[in-house]
Amino acid sequence: MTERERMLSGKLYNPYKVSDNPWAEIRAACKKFNHSDFWNDSSALEELKRHFAKAADDMVLTPPFYCDHGDKIYFGKHFYANTGLTILDENEVVFGNDVFLGPHVSIYTAGHPISAEVRNLELEYARAVKIGNSVWIGGNVVINPGVTIGDDVVIGSGSVVTKDIPSHVIAAGIPCKVIRAITEEDSILWKKQLEDYKNDADVEV
């Protein structure tokens, strides 16, 4: 197997020997975007989006943004990320639709061996991260390699997600754990807030 094939399969690989690495191109695109007047000029974002595996027209990405490759990141529709998103995409990172990220979220696919003897040989592994539809991830959350987050999930700010999170739950903590299910009572409560919003004389919906 090539180093790239080993990387994508979750096996040990040497990151310095991976061929066709878009490292220089994505860093140049990130630098241009991070120093752009992105609210008034979307050209740098459009250029950056061309490096991604998938990116919808309606995505909002607030600089600064950093990733290692770009070509293994799949953004769904109606994606929003506040400032400081970092993605180490040695393996795939897949976002569903309607995903909202707070500031300074970090998503890591790369990991290193526990054995110092092996780790010091500059070998690492990479495992894909998958995030479902309608997910809200609070600020300063860290998502570790190999994690899958289900649909309709809220991850509390400051959490470190080390294991899979099922659908329809609120989860938080270090390590991140399910706190409770998202229920019909939550829906009723927030729909009442929505009605109040719609009925406000100064609001047009």
Considering DSSP H and I runs of 4 or more, what fraction of the residues is helical? 10-25%
Which CATH architecture would you pick? 3 Solenoid
Count up the domains: 1
Structural classification: alpha/beta
CATH topology: UDP N-Acetylglucosamine Acyltransferase, domain 1
Q: Given this structure, which CATH class is correct?
A: Mainly Beta
Largest sheet: 7 strands, mixed
Assembly state (oligomeric): single chain
Write down the Rg: 19 Å
Separate helix tally: 5
Question: Topology, pairings included?
Answer:
Elements: H1 3-9, H2 23-34, H3 43-49, E1 60-61, E2 65-67, E3 73-74, E4 80-81, E5 85-88, E6 93-95, E7 99-101, E8 106-108, E9 110-111, H4 116-119, E10 125-126, E11 129-131, E12 135-137, E13 142-143, E14 148-149, E15 153-155, E16 160-161, E17 169-172, E18 177-181, H5 184-199
Parallel strand pairs: 1-4, 2-5, 3-6, 4-7, 5-8, 6-11, 7-12, 8-13, 11-14, 12-15, 13-16, 15-17
Antiparallel strand pairs: 9-10, 17-18
Helix pairs in contact: 2-3
